[in-house]
Amino acid sequence: MSRLPTPGGDDGDWGVILNDYLSVSLDADGSLKTEAVAEATTSSLGTVELSGDLAGTAGAPSVVGTSLAIPLPVGQGGTGNASGQPAGAAGGDLGGSYPNPSVAAVGGVSVSGVPAVGEAIVATSSSSASWSAVPFGNDWLNAVSEYGADPTGASDSTTAIQNAIDAAAPGQTVYLPTGTYKTSGPLVIQKSMVLRGTRGSTGSGDDAAADFGTIIKPDAGWSNPTYSAYASGVILMLDQTPGTGGATLGVAVRDLWIDGRVSAAGVDGIAAYGPVSSVRLDAVGIYLASARGIALYIDAGASSSSNFPDGWHMNNCVAQNCGSDGFYGTFVDAVGVDCHSQSNGGDGLYIKGANNRWVGFRADLNTNGYTVDVPGGGGFEDANIFVGCGTQRNSHNGMNVINSSVAGNSKRSPVLISGCMFSEDGSNGGAGGGGYAGIAVAGSNIVSIDATCVTVGTVDAAGGCPQYGIATAASGTFPGVPGTVRMSSGLLNYATGGAATNNAAPATDFNIGSMVVTAVGYQPSTVTQPFLANISAASTTLSGNLSVGGAALSAGGAGVMGLVNATTAPTSTPTGGGVMYASSGHPYWADSSGNTWDLSQPGNWAAHDMGYAAWAYDPDAGSAGVSARLITVSTLNLIGLNVRVPVTMSNITLVLAANGSGLTAGECFVGLYSGAGLLLGSSADQAANWGAGAVKTMNAALTAQSAGSLTLTPGFYYVGILGNGTTMPSFESAANYNVQWANGRLTAATARYGTNGVSLTALPVSFTPSSTSMTQISWWTAIY
Predict the structure, then answer these.
(1) Which residues pair with 514 in a beta bridge?
(2) Of the listed ranges 58-62, 227-231, 436-440, 595-599, the one predicted with least confidence
(3) How many other β-carbons are positioned within 10 Å of the β-carbon of residue 88?
(4) Nearest alpha-carbon partner for 18 in 40, 37, 2
(5) Is the peptide bond before 506 cis (omega within 30 degrees of 0)?
(6) How far apart are alpha carbons 351 and 339 in whole angstroms?
(7) C-alpha 536 chain-centroid distance
(8) Are the C-beta atoms of 724 and 667 separated by less than 8 Å?
(9) Cβ contacts of 784 within 8 Å, gap of 6 or more
(10) 362-390 in b/e burial notation, b at 16+ Cβ within 10 A?
């Protein structure tokens, strides 16, 4: 059955349906059909009046308009094409012409621009809109399209960006598309939000001069009249009410550069004042800030328990060519990973807090690479831990640990250093020296180091730098010297003329462990291993040779310890035990009673002072014939000797006090035995020599019992004398009155003086020391 078209429906079929409906009563020329007129005129309903798009009466209707969204085809009295598709100029919110009109407006609001993939229509005012990228829906505020920031850098974007920051709800992101944004004052953040660009720094040390990604660039007229009493930063993070506290939590800044090359003096890149906590910086670069790169300051007016920035996490951040420190401030509970501080006027990283972790952090070409200073009140702070960090070519120290506490304050933050490299620091303006070190410790601190290297370079100082591997110094007033400085393993390289260590403070507990090697000069070909200085460690088993103070061990050997001459001999008495040191090549021992002993010269004279390798005792203790003693016939008369140093000997010396008589030729000898009683060498027959010419010193040449048997190692040996005949000769001895006086508390097996064997006519090839009969006769003898 014929019907009228349905409003909102019948899209594309309106003309067909309407024509079908009209054809019931109208002919093709528009006139009424006879039957329709007859029906109308005879109807009891009376005359039909038409309205809307039709005028007149049912008997003579006319088309006066159309409310159709799509024009009727031309053949049906409209402007559309034959297929029913629209044609001609579009109207309303549409622009252009059919069949491909454009969207010129939405609800009467004008839309500009050409859409791209992923863009949507975003209102920029109450009367205009544009096609714009909206990456993550309504959580992102675009500072350019929504607030009018200028990414070309031609006009000041401070107000536009600040308006976006102020409008952001907690957790929302203010987005800065790629470009350069000129600012004339600080961008102030006092809420939880994210400020994000498109590309920032990497830890490798990218340069903002490359002009890529998002760059905030303060101009020469930059000023900070409102907040200058607190801090001045291109990005300025403040507590809720500066000067009184109220924490600002959860700020994040990501993927942008701050280029301060033309800004006013005294402006930090990013500054935080007071309890601005739980902050995250990712891929943020600071270039040529006129003051510090990233700076954290205490709010002096807030409560002391919460007046500092806390819990900052920095990843892949860079500070380059800044006027002062690259990273500075009261870092507490902070983490810095893969950051880089380079070519700054101050220190690379200056830490005034505790309980921080620094991983893969680099600091090059600054004053000090890292400075750690915890100057707070009394007590013990958590550690600053450095893992896999490095420095290179800083003018002063690589690691500079200080304590600026005032009198009475003893707060100390342990510094733990593991797997780090301090390279070519201490250039000192090209002069080298200056007392600078790879690792320097001054004042009351605790430093523990392992698997860490200090290396020398010659790029900035012709003589090489640093001067020292590790150095200590007194600083401050409580207590003024480092507490513990210990290094368990690694390398200490130092410049020619310097030293591996310079414990000038000295530290209370300074310990360089057995797994630390040292070397002098640039790219040394040899190293000393291991190294110990002022040892105060627990019992340790060492392998290889030992150098104390960097003593050269070029003489070779195994199990050798070397001592360098002490720069200054000990002047105080050690508490318990004693101190060993070297002076003029001699070893000394200073005991707890204030006595100093030359270990190479026991008593007034030592054997080597008179050309001997060892002797029974100083001949000055003898009695010049008064105490001469006969040897016992047909037995081995033994004199014990302690050989203190390795020696190859060939002669035994005795002093003949009285001649023998009737001595049996071929049965009078002297020989040398080991402490175990083995014959090492023997003389020719001495019968004629002992029977004439007293008093005289006799030197009996020995023939080795076997190859090398007269090359002696330190230990206990015996000189044996054997004689046969009528009357035995007498040899010079000391005046000992009994066996105990001569042998003290020794046993037969280790007797100093004694006899062994009976009815002997030749030197036995061995004897049993425990069978020795101790005697009081203390003959003098020597070997050389």
Answers:
(1) none
(2) 58-62
(3) 12
(4) 2
(5) yes
(6) 15
(7) 25
(8) yes
(9) 611, 612, 613, 649, 650, 651, 653
(10) bbbbbbbbbbbbbebeeeeeebbbbbbbb
**Range with the poorest average pLDDT among 155-169, 457-471, 536-550, 635-649:** 536-550
- Any idea of the CA torsion for 5, 11, 16, 20, to the nearest 10 degrees? -20
β partners of residue 596 = 590
Q: Are 642 and 617 in contact (CB under 8 A)?
A: no
- In terms of DSSP bridges, do strands 313-315 and 335-337 run parallel, antiparallel, or are they unpaired? parallel
Q: Which two tokens stand for residue 555?
A: 């003489």
- Three-class SS of residue 156? strand
pLDDT tens for 98-115 read: 777 877 787 778 888 877
Please state, in angstroms and rounded to a whole number, the distance separating the CA atoms of residues 339 and 315: 6
Q: 669 - beta bridge partners?
A: 722
Alpha-carbon gap, residue 156 to 220, rounded angstroms: 12
Count of Cβ atoms closer than 10 Å to residue 610 Cβ: 12
Do the Cβ atoms of 402 and 443 come closer than 8 Å?
yes
What is the 8-class DSSP label of residue 339?
Answer: -
3-class state of residue 163 by DSSP:
helix
CA distance 449 to 418: 6
| CA atoms of 181 and 257, how far apart (whole Å) | 10
633: tokens are 């016939």
β-strands 276-277, 248-249: how paired? parallel
Hey, how many other C-beta atoms are within 10 angstroms of the C-beta on 589?
Answer: 13
Rounded to whole angstroms, the Cα distance separating 477 from 739 reads 62
At 19, the amino acid letter reads: N
3-class DSSP assignment, residue 139: helix
Q: Is 556 exposed, middle or buried (0-12, 13-18, 19+ CB in 10 A)?
A: exposed
Predicted confidence at residue 557, as pLDDT, reads 60
- The two tokens of residue 478 are 């409580």
Q: Which residue type occupies 690?
A: W
DSSP string spanning 344-398? -SS-SEEE--SSEEEES-EEESSSSSEEEE---SSSBPPPEEEES-EEES-SS-S
Cβ-Cβ contacts under 8 Å for 397 (sequence gap 6 or more): 368, 369, 425, 426, 436, 437, 438, 439, 440, 466
Which residue carries 């024509």 as its tokens?
19
Q: Compare 521 and 40 and report the one with higher pLDDT.
A: 521
SS (H, E, C) 610-667: HCCCEECCCHHHCCCCCCCEECCCCCEEEEEEEECCCEECCEEEEEEEECCEEECCCC
| pTM for this entry | 0.58
Q: Which of 57-71, 286-300, 409-423 has the highest mean pLDDT?
A: 286-300
Torsion of CA 113, 119, 124, 128, to 10 degrees: 40
Token digits of residue 324:
């002062």
Whether cis (ω within 30° of 0) applies to the bond prior to 695 is yes
pLDDT band at 285 (very low <50, low <70, confident <90, very high): very high
Pairing type for strands 651-658 and 97-98 reads unpaired
Phi, psi for 429 (deg, rounded to 5): 65, 25
Containing 739, the helix (H) or strand (E) segment is: helix 739-743
- In this predicted model, which residue has the larger pLDDT, 172 or 694? 172
C-alpha distance across the termini of the chain, in Å: 144
Residue 408 has pLDDT above 50, yes or no: no
Round to whole Å and give the CA distance between 370 and 364.
10
pLDDT tens sequence across 736-776: 778 988 999 999 999 999 999 999 999 999 999 999 999 99
The token pair at 466 is 């640093």
Which H or E element spans position 690?
Answer: helix 687-690
- pLDDT, one tens digit per residue, over 316-349 is 999 999 999 999 999 999 999 999 999 999 999 9
What's the confidence (pLDDT) of residue 121? 79
